[in-house]
Amino acid sequence: MMTSSWRVIFVLLLALSAADLGLSVRAAKADDQLANQLGALLVQERETLDVVPTAHLTSLTAPPPAALNNETGPVTAQSVNNLLATVMAAPAGSGSEWNCLTEALYFEARGESLEGVYAVAEVIMNRVASPSFPNSVCGVVHQGTQALYDCQFTYHCDGRSDVIGDRAAWNAVGKVASVMLNGAPRFLTDGATYYHARTVNPSWSARFIETATIGAHEFYREPTRTASN
Fold it and tell me: I want to staple 151 with a disulfide (CB 3.0 to 4.6 A). Which of 11, 40, 157, 222 is the partner?
């Protein structure tokens, strides 16, 4: 016959076992509930992704190239190749700023390599960021009186008709415009705000710091001003 002490211990053991069983049941229910919630979220995500254009989805999910992670790092062949691959994967752009930048790149650099086009785009975007120039792409591109040859970008006031005759070239430079307007780094020309064709030697180039030679152009930036100069 079980003594009173053993009966107490036995009852306590039964209570503890029941409590453990209750916790296990509740944990299992919580796991099932969490699994159901995750399943519902995955279904919603799949339904959302189904309506996203494939090209846009690719650009969103692709890992960023090294060149896009380090604006101040060394310019290497690999970093340039990574950057140009990003350019080629860029979706088409739209809007007035994109149109102004694409137009400038088309008339100023469409005969250049993609790297050369990108370098010219850097100059335009560096100007937008500089207090010495207008603070919009269209303002920078259209700067000047528009009298004959009295503008910052000669194609805009050379007296010739600005006709887009090469649609493939327009689409290519438009990709560069897209990534630039989306905040791509500007590391090829080291902060240049000026450039000229290598076939000419403008007088102003002697006063500026040459930062790069890419394709048919040489690139410059203004010297840093100090309180003593």
Answer: 157
Measuring CA to CA, which residue among 52, 50, 189, 58 is closest to residue 124?
189
Is 64 part of any domain?
Answer: no
Per-residue pLDDT tens for 60-114? 444 443 333 334 455 666 777 777 777 877 877 889 999 999 999 999 999 999 8
Q: Are residues 45 and 80 in the same domain?
A: no
| pLDDT tens by residue, 112-170 | 998 999 999 999 999 999 999 999 999 999 997 677 777 788 887 777 777 888 999 99
Contact assessment for residue 115 and residue 105, using Cβ atoms and an 8 Å cutoff: no
If asked whether residues 11 and 92 sit together in one domain, one would say: no
Amino acid identity for residue 1 in this structure: M
d(CA 172, CA 87): 9
Supply the range of the domain harboring residue 119: 76-221
- What pLDDT does residue 156 have? 76
Count of positions (residues) in the chain: 229
**Tally of domains in the chain:** 2
146 shares its domain with 188: yes
Query: Could you tell me if 179 and 87 are in contact, meaning their C-beta atoms sit under 8 angstroms apart?
Result: yes
Please provide the distance, in angstroms rounded to a whole number, between the alpha carbons at the two ends of the chain. 108
Q: Is the pTM of this model over 0.70?
A: no
Q: Is 28 part of any domain? A: yes
